[in-house]
Design a protein that fits this description.
CATH architecture: Sandwich
CATH topology: Immunoglobulin-like
Largest sheet: 5 strands, antiparallel
Number of domains: 1
Amino acid sequence: MKANGWKHWLGCALLATTLAACSSGPVRRVSEPAARIQQLTVNADGSWTAQLRIENYSSIPMRFDRVELALQAGGHDAGTLQTDPALDIGPESADVVEVRMTPSAAAKLAAADALAAARALPYLINGTVTATPEEARKSRQFEVEYRSSLNPAPGLPGVLR
């Protein structure tokens, strides 16, 4: 009987430990979001439409209220990608917003040259993304910097991806 009593006590201790571990719930982690250009379309009027991909790396949903990113294209200051998307993005997910802008003359030429020569257009975005974590009352500003390049999309004139 003593062996059974010991096993019973051990079983109860393991059950209590398991229940205690479950009661704390999942970890609520807020991580720096990221942003990058998914697609850049050169419009007939010379303006650009950027499909900006916003990535939420947090373990909780975030509401993205403001995006303000300086854009360099082909080594030239192009202007600012600025929007107030009021976009809710789930944990460890992403979504896309469209931002229209009028680029500088030098950036327009760099994009036109890349499209005509069917070569990559390097770009850099840096600035801030303002987001509010779920159930938080105060928004937070996150610094964002991303460097990459866009290539002409085959069969889609004026589109870089």
